[in-house]
Model the fold of this input.
Amino acid sequence: MALIVQKYGGTSVGSVERIEHVAQKVIQYRNQGHEVVVVVSAMSGETNRLIALAKQAQSEPDPRELDVLIATGEQVTIALLCMAIKQRGQDARSYTGAQVRILTDSAFNKARIVKIDEEHMRADLAAGRIVVVAGFQGMDEHRNITTLGRGGSDTTAVALAAALKADECQIYTDVDGVYTTDPRVVPEARRLERITFEEMLEMASLGSKVLQIRSVEFAGKYNVPLRVLSSFQEGNGTLITYEVEGMEEPLISGIAFNQDEAKLTIQGVPDQPGVAYRILGPIGESNIEVDMIIQNVAADGLTTDFTFTVHRNDYDKALRLLQQVAETLGAKSVSGDTKIAKISLVGVGMRSHAGIASTMFKTLADEGINIRMISTSEIKISVVVDEKYQELAVRALHSAFELEKDPNNK
Amino acid sequence: MALIVQKYGGTSVGSVERIEHVAQKVIQYRNQGHEVVVVVSAMSGETNRLIALAKQAQSEPDPRELDVLIATGEQVTIALLCMAIKQRGQDARSYTGAQVRILTDSAFNKARIVKIDEEHMRADLAAGRIVVVAGFQGMDEHRNITTLGRGGSDTTAVALAAALKADECQIYTDVDGVYTTDPRVVPEARRLERITFEEMLEMASLGSKVLQIRSVEFAGKYNVPLRVLSSFQEGNGTLITYEVEGMEEPLISGIAFNQDEAKLTIQGVPDQPGVAYRILGPIGESNIEVDMIIQNVAADGLTTDFTFTVHRNDYDKALRLLQQVAETLGAKSVSGDTKIAKISLVGVGMRSHAGIASTMFKTLADEGINIRMISTSEIKISVVVDEKYQELAVRALHSAFELEKDPNNK
Done:
């Protein structure tokens, strides 16, 4: 008998029929003798409907009142799911975030969980009940309703699993696991049986939108085994855990890619201490997040070229700021490019293997793809290429590293 | 400067446009220097939508979960109203029933208020904020969400007014006050400037559906001046208060009527002690409410006829029970009639005036209307007539007692 926390997203509870399907799945687990805590999102479309109402009422909706409003979305789902479970003869009890209670800070719309009282849930589990909790929400110390921000239901599930010391936290989505890369780009992409937290963080932040980054961080921090599964198909999904000693790690777990970023370069900057700060300081102060940063000494040995990437939405703003900086610093020129793609190989296995980078660069060269930027960490290598080469690069790399093959049967 | 509690029902907050209109009205009062607490219902249609979802999920929705579900209706409205108020430059803060907190017993779907914490609201009012509270809901001592049952938002408003010792509790509806009778039947019906709690209770329970009975009882008990107004038109509405010493009371305040009841008669019952109990006991045990009761000694002096009215929905059930009782008692026969109307004259003024009843009976006789049952209390006289005579009777009585004329200008 295990204690399992399950989370079902908006699509999985998008109608009463789907909620009934979730009720059946939950009861299956319960009937196998497990203790089950279920976290649910708002029915798909509901949060957007409420936000639209809010914007009609106030041009910039008040953050506190917005949380009061959208917290109703999950409250509807928990009640309906409990009813559907009871209709099928099992006992269940619903909890809003405030009722649990999930104590958060007071940062409306993006609150962070501070503490969770598990005693009520434990009592219900001990009495044989299925516990159903509203995801995405909590309350602060002044009894204000708060929300964790979009996608925060994953975080609720992981936090509950940590508080309850659950054996597994299962995240049900509309995909059946984490793949070596996006199957829409590489049809041979393979579902991973398992992946480490670190790899998952790199995959997630690089564009594989299966799980919310914060929930993975949280799960890693509290060592909660996390499993991604499909609510619509049977299967084991992908288990996200810490590396197990002696486990044979595949060299590369997956390839992430995105076209969310734009690249900016400032050329001919006098090469002197503090120059990076003087360039990136104004960018950071404007709340623009910088991803990759590369600095090269120029041919003359006196000036340097400095390149970085930002989100495409911030490109225009960042370019204006950089032009001001260039004037102040007496730099030669400023240039930029929004038509780029970033492609990353991710794998804890590459830590102990040389030659990954050179295989990657050779593969891209063989396809005639020019690399614009390179950055590396212990478990990933990222390159920036022209946007138009993205699919070609991903397919070539997937094949070169034989990711379609199960590493245990290679 | 006064402290005013205002309540807006579902139609008054049926869309964001209407909520904006409410925001304007509330701000008007605030700008006149009043402290304002606003109680709102769910947007019209919302509660029914949620109940339909519940019935899809569970054939007989679990009472606890049903309250979790439908309490979201008012929660949406409070948030939107606060936003609309803030959009117009005034400060406001919303409270769910649980947040206030409005402590109730644990009778889900029909909870009763036990206690109200006013300290948070007082602090907000002192800070110049408009306080917006979700009607119809509360929480029990175990943090369960409860609802007061349909129409309970009126009760919330009155209870808050009592707790805050408000100067007036204003109930905004889609009618502009309490009328001498239904204007759809008598176009000359006149809006009453004021009416007493007792009269209002008689009017409400007899079919003038302006206010929830419970809220009037509550207001009377705590002596909260209650005013019914229209959210769509300007005007003073009708003030409901205790009789003021020396106030010139009109003879009759109004005429209530309904066709909700059915009449049952058991004939030829042996006239012996305890017979009323033996007849009505089984009815009461089946949770059927009895309204009018009349017992006559029959011509033979040995047996009695016994007539009473029940709600039409309970008629078939009551008839079956009565037939069993008749057999046990050896009564002669059982008969019934569903095609009846009950018409009541209501007025505290009739306490000190003789002749009201005879004027009433004469008026009906002049119109050829046969009276089937009569019952009287200190401030009302009710008659049962054939359903088809209802409108004629109401019009004739309205005219006979000159209710279309303002008693102060007669």
